[in-house]
Amino acid sequence: MRQAQLIVAKILSFVLLMSLSPAWGLSVEVVYPAKPIRLIVPFAPGATTDFLGRVVAQHMTEAWGKSVIVENKIGAAGLIGVDATAKSPADGYTVCVSTGAIAIYSATKGDVPFDALNDFEYIAMIGRVPHVIVVNKDFPANNFQEFLAYTKNGQPFPYASTGARSNAHFTGEMLRSSTGILLQHVSYRGGAPAMLDVVAGHIQIMVASLTTAMPFIKSGAIKPLAITTGTRSTVLPNTPTLKELGYPEIDNAEWWGVIAPKNTPKPILEIWRSELKKVITPALMEKSPGLELYPMTPEEMRKLVQKELVTWKEVAKKSNITE
Question: Which of 127, 95, 128, 123 minimizes the C-alpha distance to 274?
């Protein structure tokens, strides 16, 4: 194993200052990281969040010479892992690859155990990916217009998402509300198990991350019908957007960012940001077809969460989603 790379951060030594007069204004140099780091992934192995988390963990492990260990802490559409992050010590040894669902949790219930705006440090945005409306290869619709016609009659059609209160779930509810089609949500514990059931034909419809869907689209196991962002995806250029199809109000994407517990020391946050710049590159986007660079500052990330909190509360109210 390569020799550990020592990264020195200047942080305030509270222990030292407790024994000395504040007038000294002393600071000390400590090595970071000095021990393994836990990187929480709130979703199951095999999904996009897990892929990105492992890319980040591998890069940091190689760069710093200290293990960055991925922990898949799954459940409640990612809420369990994000909550564990909020409750972890703010010492730089727990970080999380969160999705945009962090803005959804508080949109449906008042007892969410954390505050999305005030309980985290927003380190860096990794990227975003559109959702794609997909159906099993044997579903009797080959385009969105046929899909609309077929799903407006009879009993509600079940559709899969990565979990209740996930971005995909709320996008599906926006689709149902805007188009009048008959859909019923079925929650899964992550995109990978949901997609496997769609491919197997156990469930016919899914609002899926484009990165999760692309391998199965290429193999012909599923059919893409529409993209959820305002512009077409470069990896799926022949699939229209919902905006093109007459639903401009549906313009959203799943996004991923790195977060840490509130009050994690700023120098440590800067170390992470500096190293993440070497990870978040066009080369990473090529490894995960459909993923797009989505550059923004930590403050812009926080403002995005604030904006999406409002959007998702409106969706929850309109669709009567309470939990």
Answer: 123
